[in-house]
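Quarterly update from the structural biology core.
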Amino acid sequence: MVINLKMKKIQKDENRITENLKLIVKSSFIVFIGLFLSKLFFYLYRLLIARFFGPEEYGVFSLAFSIFLFFALLFTFGLDKGLLRFISFYRGKNETDKIRHLISFSERVLFISSLSGALILFLLAE
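Predicted structure, tokenized:
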């Protein structure tokens, strides 16, 4: 009887592990397709800019894009990485109230910081 209960528990655990592995494989495939398409479009639009507008405009575009990315990284304050870590942490503890508070706080901070960053970029532009 005890052995039978242990075997059922082992079978249940194996089924749960198999389901989780299938979910991981599906998710990984979706992420892979997304990354592949993003890299493809990244090179495609850069190729089109270089081909049709010339090297000067491509250089200006690359510099402007670099400045934009710098401002985007600066004004997110690292909240994207922090949210990923703390939402996973609080989700493991099943503390959904803290997750809601964290998301609403981050939305407010990011809204204000992105508006100020956009204003600075606009004022610094020619």
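Residues 2-75 form the longest helix (74 residues).
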